Amino acid sequence: MDRPVPAGRRAGRCSRPRRGVLGGGSPCNMSRRRSPDRPAPRFIPRRAPAHSAAMALKTPGRYLDEIRARDLRIFYRGRRFENPVDDPIAAPAARAVADTYAAALEPGTGMAAASPLVGEPVNVSNLLWSSRDDLIARVKWERLIGRRTGRGALRSPGLDAINALAVVTHACDRARGTEYHARLVAFVERIQRDDLAVSGAMTDVRGDRSRRPAAQADPDLFLRVVDRDSKGVVLRGAKAHQTSAIHCHEHVVLPMTCGPGEAAWAIACAVPSDAPGITHIFARQPSDSRRAEDAPLDVGLPAFGGCESLMIFDDVRVPWQRVFLCGETEHTQELVRLFGSFHRFCYGGCKVGIADVVIGAASLIARANGVADSRAIRDKLTEMVQLNETMYACALAAAVEGQPTPAGTVIPDIALCNVTKLNVTRFPFEIARLAADIAGGAMLTLPSQADLEHAELGPLVTKYMTAAPDTPARTRMALFRLLEFLTHGSGAVYFLHESLHGAGAPEAMRIQLRREIPLDPFEAAARALLAE
Q: Which stretches of the chain drop beneath a pLDDT of 70?
C-alpha cells in the first residue's frame, strides 16, 4: 500500500516529467513509491563527457601521497601534526580512507561503478545514484568496508551530501532561476574524474540549544556568511564531529535548517581542505594514546581507525562557482531531511560490517575459552546475528523502495532510512553487551604487551592467559584487545556512540518518521474492521 503524503510535505504538482542536469526524465511526485516490478531507470547523460582520460580510480598510495603533501592546520593536544598520514595517532584513519581506494581497484567489491557524468567507472564514494541497484550496492559495499576495516567507509558523509544537494539545487533552480545545480554537477564531475575524498560538514556547534542562530551570544556558533562580493562569499564559524575531514581533499559544507531572518546561515558550498583559514582541532578518543606506545597488541586494532575534528572556519573565502545555496532558507529543511536520512540509511551497512567483526571476535573468544560448544554461547551468538541482519534488512528495504527524483537521481525510501537508523541506535549496544557476556572480565583486565614480552613476566603471562590448548595466549589476548577496542576503546566511538548520535539523535528519527508516515491510514484500516 502506498503511503499518503503527510500534511506539509510537498507532493508532485508538475504535469510532465522534468529533466535534471544529469539527464533522464522522472516523475515529479517524489512521495509515492514505484511499483516493485517497475525498477527505477538508469539515467543517460544528455551530453558526452568532456574528455575520456584513464579510468578515474586512484591507487591508495597516490591518495596518501596527496594528503601527505597538503598544507593542513591540524592540532592534537596542543601540538601541530606534521601531516595526518604519518602521525601515529591519525595514521590508522588515513589507512581506513585509503582502503576505499584499494577496494575500488579489486574485482567483485562493488566499489567502482559507471558514472554517466564522466563516461567511465568511478569510486562509488562519489557516485550520484541513478538506480535502485546503486542504492542496494551502497548498502553492500558499506558492509564490506566495515568488515574490512572495523570502522566503515569514512567518505560516506560526502557521498550523502552530494546526493542531497543534487535534489535540492535542482529544486532551487526551478523555483528561483538560480544556477546551483550546474555548479554542483561540475563539482561532482571533478571529484569523480580526480577520485577525490570528500567530507560532508553539516553539524554546527550550536551553542545554547534553546536559541536560534541569530539569538546566540555569538553568531559564529552556527557557520555563516560574514561577507560577500562579486567573487564569492566569506565563511566564519565551525563544524563539529567532522569524520576524517583531515584526510579529505574537499569539504562539502551544508547548513542546518534555517528560517526567516537566517539567510546568513543558509550556506552550502564546497571548500578545498587546504583553503586558508581552516583549522582542525583533532578530537581525543578513549585509549587513543596507546597508538603512540609502539604496542600494537594493546591497541587492539592497529591497522585501521577513525578520527573526528572540530573544523574551524576563520574567514574562509569561497568563490561563487563553489556555492550551491546562499540565503535560500526555504530549501534548507529539505536539504537536512535528505542528508540526514541518506546518512541514516548508510548505517544499515557500515555498522553491520563492524558488527560482523564483533560477532566474529566473540565467537573466536568462545573457542579460545573452550566454550564454543556451549548452548548458552551459541544462543547469544545467534541473537547477535539476528540483530545484525535486521539492521541490514532495513537498509536493503530502503534501497529496494528507492524512488526517482526530478533531478534525475534515485533516492532511498526516507521512512525506511529512519527506521533503519532507529534500530541502529539500539542493536549495536545489545550486540556489544552479548559480546562482553561471552568474553568475560579478561577483556578489560589483561596484562600489557610489554608484560607478555618481558623476560621474567612473559612465561607467567603466557601460562595464565592460556585457556583452550589450540589457541596461543598471545592470540587469545589479541582477540580480547580487538573486542575491547570495538566496544570500549576508540572503536566504540564508531560502533556505539556514533550509532546513537550519528546523523542525528534518536528523537530526530522519530520526528522524521512521524512526518513520513501519518497514522490516518492505520486508523482507517482499523475502522474498516470494526464490528459496529
A: 1-55
